[in-house]
Structure formats: structure tokens, C-alpha cells
């Protein structure tokens, strides 16, 4: 298997799309068409229908682990099944679990969440770097060993991100710049023949100027870009930190969750055919908007 960055770049170019489809099963937003007494079965039916529609159109999906975890053991079983099913459909998978710890605990998280053979199979995992360099090393080691990817939280899209990430240090640089410098060596160690690194970062679409600056700091880094659509980031904002490749934008992924997979037009669908048509329209419009 080739490195995560190379696989992702090939998938982006093949589909001419940087769209990452967020699979966020907010129970109260799942259409009544799928609702049933057992919420984990409702989530499973909804999510499995989604991946059949997404396959071939987007390069990758990003399940939000917390929204499966809230359903307990059965929800986590659905998450593992969904990931394996998505891979069987030719989709790549980012597990959005934001794991972070030190020592043997970080190693255990990496073993459980990184790689196609993990308990929760994935191509990449989101991680929290704010515990320091030693908390990242077990994840970087496992990513290299399993040819998987990482996306470290750096400048997130939520307004409260300024509480820590934007604190200026004595040299005037915000904290997140120092985190970027901290991960640079690990990132460079995971550059593959795509020219990009499998160690990426999360930078919100709500901060386009900072994304441009970050691209200059980390030119080979893959960006995972939340905050597009429902959180206020425009297509141009989200594209700010990407680069132009032979088939269009590349160098990262723009995530869309609720706006893509839970559009209003799909919520009140009376039958599966109408729901599928609503999702397909949403998918086509979002892909076109991000090209």
C-alpha cells in the first residue's frame, strides 16, 4: 500500500474534488424515513445509504466518532462496520476522533484507530497536539508503519479557538504557529512521492488569511478544512490554503457535514427515492461549488 498522502492525492485527482463528506449522525436530524426504536440501527441505515451515494464522487468520508460513541457499544460497532464498508466501496476514511495522550495510552489509541487493520479501520485520524511533542510520537510512528495519515488540530474553526490557539508569545507569534513549528520535522518525515506529507493539520475555513500564511510555513502539508457552509466559511475561504494541481485544487480537503448529508430537502423525504435524489443534488452542488 502506498502512503496516505499519495493515495489521497490520486483520489482527489481522479474525482476532481477536494470534498470530504462528514458523516455526523445527529439523531434529531436523521430523517424520519430512517427513524426507528433502536437508534443505532437508524444511524446504520442512514449512514450506509449515504456511502453508497458518495462512492465514486468524493475521495473520502469523515465519520464523527463522538456521535457514534454516544450510542454506546452498538454505536461503536456501527462505526467500525461503516468504515470497513466505505473502504469496500472505494472510499477513504478519516476517523474524526481527536485522540491525544502520552506514552502507552497514546500508543494504544494509535493501534486502535490507525490503519486498515485497526479495531476502528481508517486511512487517517484526527489528533490533538496540545499535549506536546511526546504525545504525537506514537501516532507518527504508527502512521508511518501503517502508511496512514494524521490531521493535528491547529487553528480550529470554532470562535473559542482564540482562547488558546491565538495567545501571542514573546516573539509575537500565536500559539498555533509554535505548534506548526513543533510538528514540522514529523511532517517532513512523512512526505511521500506525491510531494505531500501524510502528517496534516486542521485549519478552519473561517480563517483564510491564516491558512495562506500556514501554507507558506508548511508547503508540503495536507490541510483538513472544517467550517465550510453551516459554520460560515465560503468556498473561497475554504480554498485559500489549497494549491492548484493538474486536475484542480489539491493539498487538502474541505469538509462538509450537515450541509451535504442533511440538507433540508432531504429531511422530509417521504420515500427512499426522494431522499436519494435530494442527497445527490446536494452532493453535485457542493462538488461544483468547491471546484
Q: How many domains comprise the coordinates?
A: 1
Element-by-element helix/strand order: HEHEHHEHEHEHEHEHEEEHHH
The averaged pLDDT comes out at: 95
Number of helices, where a helix is a run of at least 4 consecutive DSSP H or I residues: 12
The largest pleated sheet is described as: 8 strands, parallel, barrel
**Oligomerization state:** single chain
Question: How much of the residues is beta strand, in percent?
Answer: 15-25%
In angstroms, what separates the terminal alpha carbons? 28 Å
CATH class: Alpha Beta
- Please list the strands of the largest sheet in the order they lie side by side: 1-2-3-4-5-6-7-10
The count of β-strands is 10
Which parts are unreliable, with pLDDT below 50 for 5 consecutive residues or more? none
Please tell me what the overall shape is. Answer: globular
Report the CATH superfamily.
Answer: Aldolase class I
Estimate the helix proportion, in percent. 40-55%
